[in-house]
Amino acid sequence: MKWSTEIALLQSRGVTFERGLTDAELSAAEERVGCRFPPDLHSFLQGALPTGQGWPDWREPDSQCITDRLDWPADGIAFDITNNVFWWPAWGNKPSALADAIALMRERVGEAPKLIPICRHVYLSAEPGVAGNPALSVYQTDIIYGGRDLGEYLRRILSGEEWPLPRCDEVRRIRFWSELIEWNDGCI
Does some domain include residue 188? Predict the structure, then answer.
């Protein structure tokens, strides 16, 4: 896939780029996340690496920034369990001890498809391992579809224009994450 349109759009918005990731660098990033990156993200990062605020530096996959970004989805859900009385019924009865509830949630999130950081609080699911997974905007349990796929997310968010968010029936369903989005009224 060619990314020249998206890269030009990002550059027009002040995003800088370094040379794309080598095979070895991409393998190190995938090893850190614990999964293969979908083909569209793979080709985007090998074509050019966006840098600067909000963009993960995949040349430093063991950095605290990457660790924080990988922890963000579960940490946000933990925040809502602790502070906003959130509990997803699909997890069964909520344990009475907060620590046990958080541990159960982390176990369930750990069983879900891995989320790969794209930019700020936007992620791409590693599953299925094909191009076209929806971009997920993850902010605590306020999770919505930010684009039908990586390309649409980059064009939509960075164009400066109003685009309607994709409807739930317009995106590929992602095990666990789509169910949580729909249950939590994150669909339009």
Answer: no
